[in-house]
């Protein structure tokens, strides 16, 4: 496997010396290998102890026990605990109490999530502590929920816009909320991620859908998560294995599925990458313009995004997603150099006179996505023989320009770069072997959805 080392070949006369270095090298290599394996083993036994099927089922069993005791509730509880229509599949992630479990709910794959494994670890709703507390009206709940959203998202929420989130529930019922319902709602609201998803639920296709909850666990749709080690970042094979409507664009293309390079609905892998890239562009445009505040993504990497079967890009990890007001709070720092003003992928400049970081982010979501995602897809190494085609060369150039232009300040320049990428990708899709006309994944995205906060 290793290329012959020049030293050995040239000094074949001094065979003994050479053998000794080889032996040493082999020993070193073996030692290194053993060390790495040991490390992985130790890591596994310490951490994945909690991500075993046994532990995960135990956690869900505890949820059900508390459901039976009337401590917590939710629209998923009956199926999870009584009719057993939620079937445990595997543990996806466990760290510092955060639990992520894959399951099947009535045949549909879902992901169950909670920031903390135990219900009792969440702060209880203080008004419930008093036995003789007056009954809470739905409006009071709205009020407290509003405060909680303001805390976690840094958004001023108008009273009127909160009921929308829980409105159906609030209107439908004549009776006030039970303790279990309030306690469950409260545990969910303490999870910033849940609040974020819930607030944007009907406003964005680029945010994961919450499909139900039981106690402190909430279920989201199962998606194909990105992985840096995957050649295409998203497992394109897995897309076709997902249940759901076939996302074919034209009936004619499905007949050509005999060719092995056409994986789904007559799309080639390359077509699919182009479609996913277009959806990334649409998401960038959407997060920039369609809410009352710009949404900044400060941790951009394949792992934090996923795709649906129709190749829409979805944000699944929003721990580092901030609306403009919160972004400014975060960037408001003392500084002596620009480095002090870097917050992961969100950076601003240091004002040397005031020793304060600028409140405005100087780079943009688009720049970081070009740098960390598009650059990988449209690099000459991954393209192979096609890298020399004129359109591909133009795209590579555009992606590099995009990655190197901060673009946070100059809206005009940013728009031009966005437009160039959009045009090239659309052109490539039109010319590509997949011939997928229409359905570019951004067709209906221009309806303005205002947050009204
Ligand atoms: N909706 C989903 N569909 C499929 N897989 C998912 C989904 N949500 C999360 N996952 C998988 O579970 C893993 C962990 O989930 P999540 O991203 O919420 O944790 P995390 O917040 O990334 O933890 P950290 O912030 O420490 O990185 C993800 O890397 C992803 O592989
Ligand atoms: C959760 O509860 C179980 C059982 O009550 C306990 O053994 C475990 O340590 C708790 N975990 C945390 C993180 O509090
Ligand atoms: C929201 O409603 C609460 C009572 O439910 C009230 O006290 C508060 O002033 C209202 N806030 C706004 C901004 O209207
Ligand atoms: C920033 O600097 C000011 C004065 O130079 C000081 O009063 C303040 O405490 C500092 N803030 C932080 C977060 O260090």
TrEMBL record:
Family, per entry: Belongs to the DIPK family.
Native organism: Albula goreensis
InterPro entries in UniProt: FAM69_kinase_dom, FAM69_N, Kinase-like_dom_sf
Gene Ontology annotations for the cellular component aspect, listed alphabetically: endoplasmic reticulum membrane
Name by which UniProt lists this protein: FAM69 N-terminal domain-containing protein
The FAM69 N-terminal domain, residue ranges: 15-168
Keyword Membrane among UniProt keywords: yes
Positions of region (Disordered): 244-267, 433-453
UniProt cross-references to PANTHER family, sorted A to Z: DIVERGENT PROTEIN KINASE DOMAIN 1C, DIVERGENT PROTEIN KINASE DOMAIN 1C-RELATED
Biased composition (Gly residues): 433-442
Major localization class: endoplasmic reticulum
Taxonomic superkingdom: Eukaryota
Lineage: Eukaryota, Metazoa, Chordata, Craniata, Vertebrata
């Amino acid at each position: 496997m290793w290329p012959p080392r020049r030293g050995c070949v040239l000094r074949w006369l001094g065979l003994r010396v050479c053998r000794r270095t080889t032996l040493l090298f082999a020993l070193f290599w073996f030692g290194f290998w053993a060390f790495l394996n040991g490390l992985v083993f130790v890591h596994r036994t310490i951490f994945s102890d909690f991500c075993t099927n046994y532990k995960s089922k135990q956690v869900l069993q505890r949820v059900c026990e508390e459901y039976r005791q009337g401590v917590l509730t939710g629209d998923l509880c009956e199926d999870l605990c009584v009719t057993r229509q939620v079937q445990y599949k595997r543990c996806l992630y466990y760290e510092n109490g955060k639990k992520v479990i894959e399951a099947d709910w009535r045949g549909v794959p879902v992901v169950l999530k909670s920031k903390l494994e135990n219900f009792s670890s969440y702060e209880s709703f203080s008004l419930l502590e008093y036995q003789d507390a007056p009954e809470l009206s739905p409006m009071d709940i709205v009020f407290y929920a509003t405060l909680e959203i303001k805390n976690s998202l840094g958004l001023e929420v108008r009273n009127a816009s909160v009921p929308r989130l829980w409105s159906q529930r609030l209107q439908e019922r004549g009776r006030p909320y039970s303790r279990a319902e309030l306690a469950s709602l409260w545990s969910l609201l303490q999870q910033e991620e849940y609040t974020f998803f819930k607030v944007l639920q009907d406003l964005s296709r680029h945010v994961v859908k919450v499909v139900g909850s039981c106690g402190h666990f909430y279920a989201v749709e199962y998606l194909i998560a990105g992985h840096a080690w995957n050649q295409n970042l998203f497992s394109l094979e897995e897309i076709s294995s997902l249940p759901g409507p076939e996302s074919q664009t034209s009936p004619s293309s499905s007949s050509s599925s005999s060719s092995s390079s056409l994986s789904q609905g007559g799309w080639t892998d390359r077509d699919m990458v182009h479609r996913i890239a277009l959806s990334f562009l649409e998401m960038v445009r959407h997060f920039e313009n369609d809410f009352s505040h710009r949404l900044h993504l400060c941790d951009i990497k394949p792992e934090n995004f996923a795709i649906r079967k129709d190749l829409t890009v979805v944000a699944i990890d929003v721990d580092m997603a901030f609306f403009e007001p919160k972004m400014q709070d975060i960037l408001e720092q003392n500084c002596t150099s620009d480095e002090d003003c870097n917050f992961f992928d969100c950076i601003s400049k240091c004002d040397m006179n005031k020793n304060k970081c600028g409140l405005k982010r100087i780079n943009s979501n688009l720049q970081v996505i070009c740098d960390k995602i598009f650059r990988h897809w449209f690099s000459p190494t991954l393209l192979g023989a096609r890298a020399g085609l004129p359109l591909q060369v133009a795209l590579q150039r555009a992606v590099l320009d995009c990655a190197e232009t901060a673009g946070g300040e100059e809206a005009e320049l940013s728009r031009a770069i966005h437009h160039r990428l959009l045009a090239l990708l659309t052109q490539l899709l039109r010319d590509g072997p997949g011939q997928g006309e229409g359905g570019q994944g951004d067709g209906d995205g221009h309806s303005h959805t205002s947050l009204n906060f």
